[in-house]
Amino acid sequence: MNALGVGVDVGGTTIKAVLAGDDGVVRERVDPLPTPHTGAEDVARVVASMAKPLLALAGPGAALGVCVPGIVDEERGMGVFSANLGWRRAPLRDLIADLCGCPVAFGHDVRSGALAEARWGVGVPDCLYVAVGTGIASGLVLGGHLSPSRPWTGEIGQVGVAHPATGVIVPLESVSSASAIARRAADAGIVTEGSGARDVEDAAAMGNPDAVRILDEAMGALGHVLSVVAHQVGSIPIVLGGGLSRGGELIYGPLRRALALGSIVAPPPALLRARLGSDSQALGAVALSLELEEVYA
């Protein structure tokens, strides 16, 4: 019989909770709830209300995994900072454990997604997972396990790069995130306000040269930063996740070229598309809970 774990993904707008086995198959889920933006205590209460029914289904000895956005201290179980969700140095792991009455594994949302993809998505023991959506962050998996982390680990979206239009040094996610791509295209009149990166890709596919240029510049900057990271961690597969991962060759083509350009001697890393979609982070939290169950077994 498969071991069962409960995972909760605290997102910027919604909280998701699933019960899954050690095969990565979701057995049960509860309806998502809006994420409170009124502090850590309110978030903990919502997490507990969603997790308790699933913990009851999992049975005695089940642990809970929770992943959150922002700057995270996994070792201390602390949400160091989240401007959107209204916490600073919040002891989230302890708050949730007290409410649920069970051990809680606590992690960063993107790092949790990396673990799930390595185990149950793309299925590789070593990879650098890169989530590109409204922001950019990464998680490193080696030998099937997350690499140890400190606060700010994986926040590659904050690496400084030259903005293609001005040359001013800005955070990478100001150029290469899905939201930045859409914003630049809207400012150029290529798409309407409120459009997404997919709309920019559609315009590029229709032959709009400015849309093509914006995508090339965004993926070029991302590929440059990732090639530097690859030289530190080794030429392991890069797994593209987040909203931008659903794009086509107008996303993946210039990103592969940039990775190759940045790999003068070492072989460029393989570029893979994430497979788990919106469940990746909740499943990663399940993986964390299963590791904790082994500790307490």
TrEMBL record:
Domain of life from the UniProt record: Bacteria
SUPFAM superfamilies per the UniProt record, alphabetical: Actin-like ATPase domain
InterPro entries associated with the record: ATPase_NBD, ROK
Family to which the UniProt record says this protein belongs: Belongs to the ROK (NagC/XylR) family.
PANTHER family the UniProt entry points to: BIFUNCTIONAL UDP-N-ACETYLGLUCOSAMINE 2-EPIMERASE_N-ACETYLMANNOSAMINE KINASE (PTHR18964:SF149), ROK (REPRESSOR, ORF, KINASE) FAMILY (PTHR18964)
Protein name stated in the entry: ROK family protein
Species per Swiss-Prot/TrEMBL record: Schaalia odontolytica
Biological classification of the source: Bacteria, Bacillati, Actinomycetota, Actinomycetes, Actinomycetales
